[in-house]
Amino acid sequence: MSRFWSDHVAGLSPYVAGEQPKIAKLVKLNTNENPYGPSPKALEAIREAVGDRLRLYPDNDSTALRAAIAEHHGVKPDQVFVGNGSDEILAHVFNALFRRQGRMLLMPDISYSFYKTYCRLYDVPAELVPLDDDFGIRPEDYAAARPAPIAGVIVANPNAPTGRALSLEQIDAIAAAHPDAPVVIDEAYVDFGAQSAIALLGRRDNLVAIHTFSKSRSLAGLRVGFAIGSEEIIGGLNRVKDSFNSYPLDSLAHAGAAAAIRDVEYFDRTRRLVMATRADLTQRLEILGFKVLPSQANFVFASHPDHDARELALALRAEGVLVRHFSQPRIDQFLRITVGTPEECELLCETLVKIQTKTH
Ligand SMILES: *Cc1c(COP(=O)(O)O)cnc(C)c1O
């Protein structure tokens, strides 16, 4: 608390990001970054954008980038909203869509923890809908009637940090149950094996899909995300964005992201590599005695019957391998492990064997 702060600041609960270590040489499997570099074409486009033109403001409408995203996904440019990472887009979504007098937002009890942070920041009351015993989202829980209209729904698909995905039919059922409320699907990991709700936009004008360049496009450092929805919903996001920061994306981000989304060949090759490594890693972990949830993301969520997850994470860190542990009820016996290169995953498994033989 400070006498200089606005009234609400003391009550915020800021998001805690995974560690970005200052020392090199660590095997970094803790923040779901892509182990393969960005598309060489994206890097080339960024290099070309470095020059005298940086003295000019960037295009505040991100016209070329939105056109490239629209073309890739077969929608109109006015259905595309871009932001400084999808976290910023989520902030605008909470601000522009979910702040409704007397209405609750529905979201899973276990999901991306930034949602709860934004609920606090924007004063959005939420009803937490429990995942089932296998950590799955039950669409019927969201479709059930409620005493008052809802402010909206937000789910991550695949969910974080479980990696489990809903089918398009299940997403459609949630959207159909609330035709007058925005149903927002955070698709940060969708390119690793799930189906995008973008395919449903033709019949569900209340759906919004949010994507990021940080995971499947390997550009976490560039900070670019996008949302696709009806022009009506995107119009609301634009009003909030232009009341906050007209230039959220810089010129280098515009150039790199547009080139990345056009490089379909590189995108498909690298995400297939990640998916293949995920299958191998899952199998290896199961042989080591882990229970691994079925994942459609670039990470796996795993628990071991004989080892405390927090202690395992610490022991791995001492051996130079970073994974993510959440001290949160229901999931505090799980580790979230990013799918790295085959070599990194091999090193992780060797280190786990070393730890297991030490503690037995
Ligand atoms: C990584 C992640 C984001 C944030 O992505 P940025 O575009 O890097 O801000 C959003 N939602 C989920 C579920 C994520 O895992």
Automatic annotation (TrEMBL):
Q: Name one GO molecular function term.
A: pyridoxal phosphate binding
Cofactor(s) of this protein: pyridoxal 5'-phosphate
Q: Which Pfam families match?
A: Aminotran_1_2
* Domain (Aminotransferase class I/classII large): residue spans on this chain: 25-352
CDD domains (UniProt xref): AAT_like
Q: Which UniProt keywords apply?
A: Amino-acid biosynthesis, Aminotransferase, Histidine biosynthesis, Pyridoxal phosphate, Transferase
A GO biological process of this protein is: L-histidine biosynthetic process
Give the metabolic or biological pathway.
Answer: Amino-acid biosynthesis; L-histidine biosynthesis; L-histidine from 5-phospho-alpha-D-ribose 1-diphosphate: step 7/9
Name positions with the PTM N6-(pyridoxal phosphate)lysine.
Answer: K215
**What is the reaction catalyzed?**
L-histidinol phosphate + 2-oxoglutarate = 3-(imidazol-4-yl)-2-oxopropyl phosphate + L-glutamate
Record keywords: ATP-binding included? no
- This enzyme's EC code(s): 2.6.1.9
Q: What class of enzyme is it?
A: transferase
| Subunit structure and binding partners | Homodimer.
**Family membership:** Belongs to the class-II pyridoxal-phosphate-dependent aminotransferase family. Histidinol-phosphate aminotransferase subfamily.
Read off the HAMAP family from this record: HisC_aminotrans_2
Q: What is this protein called?
A: Histidinol-phosphate aminotransferase
Upper lineage is: Bacteria, Pseudomonadati, Pseudomonadota, Betaproteobacteria, Burkholderiales
